[in-house]
Amino acid sequence: IFHEDPRYILFIHMVINDGIQLTVTSMLFILSYIFYKINVSFCCFFILVAVFATRNTPVNLAGMAIEQLREADTPPT
Prior knowledge:
By secondary structure, the protein is mainly α. The protein has one domain (about 5-75). The protein is about 80% helix and about 0% strand. The protein contains 2 helices and no strands.
């Protein structure tokens, strides 16, 4: 089923990506209240992960839309 319909893989990827984004941003929020000062490299790593996860969601949605459009234009075999 995954070979014929990549929407499921893209959807699971988006769910995992959103989970990573939510976890990292929540962790940064909690750590900012617990620790007054955070190491710059530690903070930059988590911010980069959060930014990449944020930027990845629209790309994933576009891939799902293109796949749906391709599926609608392809005649059944």
